[in-house]
Amino acid sequence: MRLKRITTLFMSTMLVLPTFLVSAETDDGLSSEEKAPQGEGSYSEKNEVVYATLDGSGDPKDMYVVNNFTIKEQGEIIDHGPYSSVENLTDLTEIEKNDNNIVFTAKDDEFYYQGNLEGKPLPWDINVSYKLDGKKIAPEELAGKGGGLEIQIDTAKNKKGEESFFKNYLLQITLKFDSAKYKNIQAEDANVASAGKTRQVTFTAMPEKEESFKVNALVSDLEMEAIEIAAMPSSMPIEKPDTGDMKKDMKSLSDATEEINRGVGELESGIAELNNGVASLYDGSEQYKNGIIELTNGSSELVGGSASIKSALQKMSESVSAGSGDVDMSQFKQLEDGLRQIAGGLNETETGLTNLKNNYSKAYQALDQSIQSIPAQNVSEQEIQTLYESGADKEVVDKLVANYKAAQTTKQTYASTKEAFAAVDPTLGKVSGSLNEMSGSLSTMADNVANSMESNDINESMKQLEEGLQSLSSNYNSFHSGLKEYTGGVQQLAGSYEEVHGGIASLTNGTDELENGAGELHNGTAELAQQTADLPDQLQKEIDEMINQYDKSDFDPVSFVSSKNEKVETVQFVIKTESIRKEEGEKEEKKKEKEKSVWERFLDLF
To answer: What domain range includes position 513?
Structure first.
């Protein structure tokens, strides 16, 4: 009986309460209807919050917008939007919907109403895909499964949506995982945080960027809460960083690059000088080689002629020593003629050696000057390593180093053999002097023979002639032996010098390539120096452009619902996918809903 009376009283209160709320008098004795504003109202700003539900793959399902107005003057206000239905969230007054015009009466400082949308495209295309143990799987098949899970979320511009939101809004994508079911969660470029037993993974997609994000984890008995996507304007102004120290470092780099360029320029000049010196060296070496070959070719004739002279002197000496008292005067005439012919041959040989000596001297001077023109500056291994690390073309640097080493090797080899080269010239002079001396002796002997024939003092003259010929023949034997040794040495020197001259020829080709490579290297370092000359300014420019790209503080919001709406202060998007639950859980939730009391359902209305 008591329960029946309480139930009757509660129902009576519920019937009277709406009338009481609408008709209750205020403190000054006037009803709410009498206090309701009359005429046209106005508002200072409007805010929109767009709520969208996506299926497990990211395809749109439901969408509604909560509109909030900050009332400036109470009264009738008109809003715009292609809503399928509207609902007053502020009070119990009716909202009039006339096509795309929404008319309501605002009586408080704030007014809220909800508008449901159908077919309105979001500014972003959102695609969510799943893989389990490397195989694609539909979201509705995931519940209760286990294994290696990969979730990929792709965001792109929706060509049918409002472009200004894509250009100025950033997306914050949040996934929540139960730590008891998800292990070894990996998400590149994400912020991973713990909230109790939940691991929260958050990605950020910047304005105007189409992004792709991945989460990998090991899961058992899979269930997952909805993926939450919040879109908000990137309206926070970005302060310019202090780049003073960085610009100083860049200036140091720029100066160092310029210094490298100057050093490579000096290197190029030095290599050009080296190349010119090596070219002169090659010319001098060519002259020297031709002279030594000419000397070698004449050596056999010289030795042959000397052998003939030696043989003639020996025969003459023997003939004179074996002569009898009866002297044939015609033989003296032949002896005189023979002596003069030998003296003439020696004079011709001496003239040839003198010419050879002069040519060799010129060739040797050219060779010596060319070798001396090779720069003697020593380049350390550290300096070579610095050149490699300067960013220059490695192939060009390899050529530089190889030719530098070849030039230094040539210079050192010449220094060790210089005495041998220098000894040739005085030796030729001595040989030439000896020939000249012997030629004079033979001429004197021929004169003595002639004088003896005229004075008829034959016996005394023959005795002097015999002694002179024996002495001359003996001395000439020693001269001939020395001449053979000398010509053998010249031939050996000529054979060895062929290799030296070949090396100098290779060195010439190498330094020529080296000069070209150094020119290319200098062009490269000059371009690098030019490119890095204003590096600090370029750095500041890049930073300014980057800041301007992401600084959207000058963005003027527009209505998501209708371009006719004015005074829009903010537009926010709250987007969620469907959660993934096992069927048993869904049944239990439905069962709990059925078990709600009358009072709980009544409270749900508010």
So the answer is: 247-538
